[in-house]
Amino acid sequence: MNGPFLACDWGTTNLRAWLVDADGRVAEGRDFPLGVSRLKPGEAAERFRQEVRPALGAERLPTLMCGMIGSTLGWQVAPYADCPASLDDLAAHLVTVEDGPAAVRIVPGVRGPGVTAAPDVMRGEETQLFGWVAGAEDRARGRRVVCHPGTHAKWAVIEDGRLVRFVTAMTGELFSILSRHGVLASDAKPDDEEAFLAGVEAAGDGSALAARLFSVRSRVVGGDADPQSSPSYLSGLLIGSEIAALPRLLDAPDDDPVALLGDETLIAWYARAFAARGVACTTHSGDEAALAGLTALHARTAP
Amino acid sequence: MNGPFLACDWGTTNLRAWLVDADGRVAEGRDFPLGVSRLKPGEAAERFRQEVRPALGAERLPTLMCGMIGSTLGWQVAPYADCPASLDDLAAHLVTVEDGPAAVRIVPGVRGPGVTAAPDVMRGEETQLFGWVAGAEDRARGRRVVCHPGTHAKWAVIEDGRLVRFVTAMTGELFSILSRHGVLASDAKPDDEEAFLAGVEAAGDGSALAARLFSVRSRVVGGDADPQSSPSYLSGLLIGSEIAALPRLLDAPDDDPVALLGDETLIAWYARAFAARGVACTTHSGDEAALAGLTALHARTAP
Asked: First-to-last CA distance in chain B?
């Protein structure tokens, strides 16, 4: 460690901040409804100074931030580091937005070749990925496949501790949009495990999603399924499609064990889908990984 | 022919009606903004009697209707005929909702095994499919693959004049929802052919759509594509995914020539995508096919 610091995972909808003491322990953790999608242009620096620092008594602490705060919507653009990338590469490309003993620095996102001709990008997940690697010695050896579910789910391959390739899947966003708009819209809660698993099975080999999606409707209209189970089935279908198709895109064997990293409730649903498909997985907290990643970067780079 | 009649393709958003004379010629064609999604429950019969019949001077004509008018949202449910189905099967299952010399009858939809455990269904397209078959003698022989693009695109395999299997893909609905909601939303027109073709190529083998969709965004955020071209790219990606994946689901060879049936503008875009993928296709008017299908049914079944 290099003394106390303020660690921030500043995302699209939320800002999570941790006050980390000189021994690397969390003295306090706080959430702020200051996600970059809620900020006016140019407002991030001021809100941080006036709301976040005082709330944690962190007026004079060096600060390290990861996430969408480094995007065009955030404080200042932190240009992407290129894949393959190591923790040292991130450390070498921190962007200093305020200097001095209470410096504020932003972790760059990572850009890599995409599934298509377009590149793929992440911001925030890279810090969680390296934080996860730092969590156990054997994770920095050999090949590891990590799935980070969410609005824009990230699948990453880590080889000997380096992020070598990754793919984004808009699974969470598709669920959110399709359950609110169009013929599949429904107010029911996606909490029916049986329908969820039927959706996972309906995902098949992960091809032809637009066709499989129609079964959300046709199982009700042409069959006898309860409309209340539609969101659960839709969720299983989307998650099952992701699980079926993504390993192939990453050139990872279908049956490689997968480390699930992220929100506890969401990764529990993913774990059910993995179990149904007979793929081994482990589950890990995304928040803890973000903090671990920021702490590892602070240790290497504190002014 | 069995005398003059009124032919109606009564769909979700629109009602198209043709006054057909005793020689099978169209005396008049009219559109009405009376799609079933715009009707109050139970209102179809009254609106038809008070608005459609008088507008065409067709108060005393027998009437044949196809489309969503036979759904729970329509006049009365016309139970699905089962796949494989022939034109004779449809003729045998017309549902009479008003009797007498000015009888009103509704063509049943068709239900078949789906890609998933849920069945697949169509209402309206079956009439166009058989109308298309009736349009040339050789279409009733051997195997034909027909693609009917739209909100819910239908792909059908016709063998010796019988509809043997079909699959629905929600391509049009996905485009509509994704271009209006979420991070891919855009007001730009999908009229950029170069971006459309880049999208078709990005569809790859039709797998992992949720991952490929992210490229609509990442080609702008991480690359240098013009955001104005995003809807065109999205359209190409969705149509390309459909074209890549659907033939396999139908057990039809990838390179079988495909008959495109439907809206002129839409099938022109599909034709560009087929050409880019090196698959032969022909194009055919959906309206003409609907009229031909209703006329063929009238000839077999008029009271």
From this structure: 12
CB contact under 8 A, B204 and A115: yes
Phi, psi angle pair for B60, to nearest 5°: -115, 15
Closest CA to A210 of B111, B193, B178: B178
**Contacting residues of B for A171, CB less than 8 Å apart:** 210
- pTM for the model: 0.93
Q: What is the CA radius of gyration of chain A?
A: 20
Q: Residue A128: which of A3, A232, A261, A301 has the closest Cα?
A: A261
pLDDT at B302 over 80: no
**How many of the other CB atoms lie within 10 Å of CB of B40?**
8
Cβ–Cβ < 8 Å for B204, B170: no
Please judge whether B208 and A238 are an interchain contact, meaning their C-beta atoms are less than 8 angstroms apart: no
| B-interface mutation test, from A116, A197, A216, A224, most B Cβ less than 10 A away | A116
Residues with Cβ within 8 Å of residue A138, at least 6 apart in sequence? none
The residue type found at A267 is I
C-alpha angle with apex A186: B115 to A15, nearest 5 degrees? 110
Calpha distance A6→A57 (Å, rounded): 10
pLDDT digits (tens, 9 = 90+) for B141-189: 999 999 999 999 999 999 999 999 999 999 999 999 999 999 999 999 9
Walk across the sheet containing A15-20 and list its strands: A26-32, A15-20, A5-10, A63-66, A104-106, A95-98
- The confidence score (pLDDT) of residue B1 equals 53
Whether B243 has a pLDDT exceeding 60, the answer reads yes
The pair of three-digit structure tokens given for residue B93, joined into one six-digit string: 């299952």
User: In the sheet where B119-122 sits, what is the strand order?
Assistant: B81-82, B110-113, B119-122
Residue window 89-128, chain B: list those with CB within 8 Å of chain A.
Answer: 111, 114-121
Q: Which residues contact B205 (CB under 8 A, 6 or more apart)?
A: A207, B244, B245
For chain A, the maximum distance between any two Cα atoms, rounded to a whole number of angstroms, is 67
The closest CB to that of A245, out of B168, B170, B207, belongs to B207
Task: Taking the CA atoms of A192, A194, A198 and A203 in sequence, report the sign of the dihedral they define.
Answer: positive
| Predicted confidence band of residue B223 (pLDDT cuts 50, 70, 90) | confident
- Close Cβ partners of B48 (under 8 Å, ≥ 6 residues apart): B34, B75, B104
DSSP B255: T
